């Protein structure tokens, strides 16, 4: 019999042993749930019995032959599983529940193998039937599926295990208290921002928002470069500029030479020396530039599963090419939630640049609000931190606050939501400075 003609991967014995373990020892359910869910069972009747046990547990009801039989009967499923006799047989499958997790791991492995088989069929379907779809989209979809298969339910932990980890970290942090400007998360390299945020934490989704020309992309790239210089692995998705343009910005920001002077060949000896030093400084940074115009949240997720970066930067959010056939608000909301999921699954911070709507222009005080996010939808909900950039000289070139950029916190899930920092913006050289260490005059 060929592989195609075989039954899908499954272990009926292991499925029966899992359910039998729960029926003789309801305490086994919580241990098993850390590994598998109802959908991991191959036989539908086993899914129904497992679901009945989960529902009874959620209602703080006992789990035994009588209660499970009543729950199945109430749902019209008792006869379909084979009646009370079939349920009684499951109780007698195993003599003890001590090996429940071992049986559950077998069920999980078989479920993942079925998922792998489904991906193989999906790969064939994409190759044969979706011939017109971009190859990158196909690969991204399959890579995301493989990434999901790699994640086991065993990652779920009891509260006690999480609290043990918290206690261990708290003790370690107490032994190494932070000085001003130091952070536990990924550093921005800008002391006031690091003091305000405490660095960029793994699992969090950050938004840098602003009107066009405010410098939000410059800030995002500078954070990426500074993090890489701190030894962090960084991936930048540049959907608006080419990787060459991004690299040019980074080099010019590093050495204080304008790109225009570089293009026009007007560098003197000192400037050439600075340029050479900047290129040498940046050359070996663990920084990857991806300027693929077809980037989607799925392709980012697939890349993250493979490369395991310390920081992901997306410039910018509205240029992602996710194909979601819903209204714009719902589409952007799903994209934002996808980036949040990436930050959790990859265990790294994700920073995305987001453009604000024109609504800010109609107000007397033009400092951005969270409601100015374009077609915000669920973007506000998905983000852990929302930063907004504001420069007074953007609207009033004669102001005394020339080149001063305010970084306003508009949402901070784990901190103070009304904080702000001030930076010096050197537009000519595409860089920001802490005001306390400004090197150039306005």
Quick overview of this protein structure:
The protein has about 450 residues and is α/β, with parallel strands linked by helices. It is about 45% helix and about 10% strand.
CATH superfamily of the largest domain: P-loop containing nucleotide triphosphate hydrolases
Give the helix tally: 17
Mean pLDDT: 86
SSE sequence, one letter per element: HHHHHHHHHEHEHHHEHEHEHEHEEE
Question: What fraction of the residues are assigned to beta strands by DSSP?
Answer: 5-15%
**How is the CATH topology of the largest domain named?**
Rossmann fold
Helical proportion, percent range:
40-55%
Envelope shape: elongated
Total DSSP E strands: 9
CATH class descriptor of the largest domain: Alpha Beta
State Rg: 27 Å
Low-confidence stretches: 437-442
Order of strands in the sheet with the most strands? 3-2-4-5-1-6-7-8-9
